[in-house]
């Protein structure tokens, strides 16, 4: 497999990881908004439920950590390939 093709595949995988990471960030930020800024008057009623907000914290963190680790590993692999030139 050519190096250019490997780099393109890694870039595609990084894009997918970023696309998964983005909703995690949004969910986490919505949970922060609901927990600390709404005082029971959120713009969406479901954000007033403490169980939902806590679940959003967990889900958001899990998605962000997964995306971050995946991106870190892929970039490290990309750098290893590029330095091997």
Walk me through what this model shows.
The chain starts with a helix and ends with a helix. The mean pLDDT is 92. By secondary structure, the protein is an all-alpha fold. It has one domain.
- Unreliable residue runs: none
Overall shape: it is rod-shaped
Radius of gyration: 18 Å
Give me the secondary-structure category: mainly alpha
Write the element-wise H/E pattern from the N-terminal end onward.
HH
* Integer average pLDDT: 92
State the major sheet.
Answer: none
Number of strands: 0
For the record, the count of structural domains works out to 1
Outline:
The chain is mainly α.
Question: What is the fold's blueprint, element by element?
Answer:
Blueprint: H1 3-36, H2 50-83
What tags apply to this protein structure?
single chain; 85 residues; mainly alpha; rod-shaped
């Amino acid at each position: 497999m050519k190096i250019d093709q490997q780099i393109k595949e890694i870039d595609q995988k990084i894009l997918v990881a970023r696309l998964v990471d983005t909703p995690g960030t949004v969910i986490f930020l919505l949970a922060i908004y609901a927990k600390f800024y709404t005082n029971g008057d959120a713009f969406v009623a479901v954000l007033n439920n403490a169980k939902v907000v806590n679940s959003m914290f967990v889900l958001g963190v899990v998605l962000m950590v997964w995306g971050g680790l995946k991106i870190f590993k892929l970039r490290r692999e990309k750098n290893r390939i590029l330095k091997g030139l």
